[in-house]
Amino acid sequence: MRIMGLDVGTKTVGVAVSDPFGWTAQGVETIAIDEEQDEYGWERLGKLIAEYQVDQIVIGFPKNMDGSTGPRAEAVRRYAAMAEERFHIPVILWDERLSTMAAERILLKADMSRKKRKKVIDKMAAVMILQNYLDSKKSRI
């Protein structure tokens, strides 16, 4: 069973997938979207779901540090509902607090230039979201 992790922004969606055993997350790509124009990259996402035979999607849910939710979280909640309706597979919202900052720290430690970081940060954040989810499942076993 493969699981897909998504980091949904207003301009891009970072995509990661698990290995077939659900142990590790690997970055796949960043899909350009335009939330203002209701362009969400569904066609490309559908192709990736089919290619990797995805059974479940985990989407990073941007809570505030105090646990409350704001406008961005509501936009992600709508995206998740649309994805579940479109692809007919379960979608889970996963607390993503600090995932982008953690991804940024990893890329900085790798001494990656700002220009290169900008190209991969969303994909890396999707990896962090998915890996945290996979790790939480292992700890419950």
Automatic annotation (TrEMBL):
Q: Which SMART domains match?
A: YqgFc
* Keyword list, A-Z: Cytoplasm, Hydrolase, Nuclease, Ribosome biogenesis
Chief localization class? Answer: cytoplasm
Q: Origin, by domain of life?
A: Bacteria
What EC number(s) does the entry state?
3.1.-.-
Instruction: Tell me the compartments it is located in.
Output: Cytoplasm
Residues passing through the membrane, by range: none
**Which Pfam families did the record assign?**
RuvX
Q: Which GO terms describe its cellular component?
A: cytosol
GO molecular function per UniProt: hydrolase activity, acting on ester bonds; nuclease activity
Question: Which GO biological process categories is it annotated with?
Answer: rRNA 5'-end processing
Q: Where is the YqgF/RNase H-like domain?
A: 1-103
Q: Which InterPro entries match?
A: RNaseH-like_sf (IPR012337), YqgF (IPR005227), YqgF/RNaseH-like_dom (IPR006641), YqgF/RNaseH-like_dom_sf (IPR037027)
* Function noted in UniProt: Could be a nuclease involved in processing of the 5'-end of pre-16S rRNA.
HAMAP family in the record = Nuclease_YqgF
Belongs to which family? Belongs to the YqgF HJR family.
Q: What name does the UniProt record give this protein?
A: Putative pre-16S rRNA nuclease
Species this chain originates from = Caldibacillus debilis GB1
